Amino acid sequence: MFQIDRFGRQPIYEQIIEQVEQLVASGALRPNDQLPSVRTLSQTLSANPNTLQKAYAELERRGITTGVPGSGRYISRDAPRLVSEGMQALLTDVSTLCEKLHIAGVPKQKVLDTVESAYAVPLHSAEKSPGASQAHEMANDDAQQTASGKDVEL
After folding, report:
1. Residue 141: CATH number of its domain
2. pLDDT tens-digit readout, 64-87
3. Strand partners, 65
């Protein structure tokens, strides 16, 4: 479900937050789906539990997840709406960038080609994460495996 780039510029906790939001946006994670425990995820990714706890705390602060004492963390009912609102804010950023590119004299067709190129890349490449339906199945499997005490295969 999650993959981290240890050598990338983006901190690990931000990578986890971004991936959860992308999975929610794609529908791979739905309200009431359980996330892997910090401990399980830490073992699977070989990442510091404090780093993962930081990501989970931020997701909860944003309202994307909710913690249930003794039960784990779940995708909140409002998560799809909150993530969608965040995506709309990104569209505003794209608009601002396009204005700057226009002012700088970058041809419109070059910008459109760049956008087309970005959309041509599969939503979830094999290197990053599985397709939406596979990711949803994995999320459900993760919740069941976590509940049974088995390691989560990510």
Report:
1. 1.10.10.10
2. 999 999 899 999 999 999 999 998
3. 75
